[in-house]
Amino acid sequence: MAEDVMRPLTPDFRMQGSTSDGGSIQKLAESYIKPNELLSSADRLEIYNRQYWFRVMGAVAEDYPGVLAILGEEKFDQLVLAYLKENPSTSFTLRNLGSKLSHWLEGHPEFAPRRHDLLVDVAKLEWAYIESFDRASLSPLSELDISGLTAESQLSLQPHLQLLDLRYPVDELILAVHRETEPAGVASNAASEHKHKKLKRLPTMRRSVIRLAIHRLENNVYYRRIDREAFLLLLAIQEGATLGAAIEKAFSDSKLSAADQAEKIQEYFAHAAGLGWFCLPPDHSPTKL
User: I need a surface site. Which of 67, 122, 219, 234 has the fewest CB within 10 A?
Assistant: First the structure.
């Protein structure tokens, strides 16, 4: 029955009439579900089948309100149905349903041919929001720890810190969506009604390189724009580079003077340290800094 309940719906969101090997769903339902005065065995199975899919599709909609706002309800539902057919639920939690959506979207421009890059950027940011909210927060380095760093030192970034190099200022779009969208409660009837809130006009998006640091502070997630050198520096640290190598990568083709670079580096570290972004690598102790 679980297999039948989780079988993908048709494009018009109805239960399929046959199994993958050509068997009759009607006969299959009759083998283990009794009809009643109002519903046949297949009718009763279809209720469970549709409700399962409306629930998982609703869960994705809750995590990706920006993608929904761009596509509109009909196209969004078709996209999620196609995505979940290729990436079915494999986890005990609905939280992980949309984990592959941004990557999957990169290979599926047919859902928004003219706004494909924008759609992918929005999906990346919305998943980064979830990751930032859920991931761990480790003890940050103290000012004393940071003052003792050398070019050979290695440090890590907080697990909740996400770095994105985007093609559109989608942070503005997502913030506009969040202002209009209230999170669904545990008693929500969204799964049974399968309706999405219609949003007002969204801000116009023009192509513009935006680099974001998405981080959590006091149980709130924030989007912070950073410049190219800061992004490259943080990314290199995140990838395991020594501090000297990370700084070299960040400023390898910079036109700033040595004095200006030094000022920038001091600014970046003061800013990141103030937000608690730096922590020790898992296999290091404070004495190794």
Answer: 219
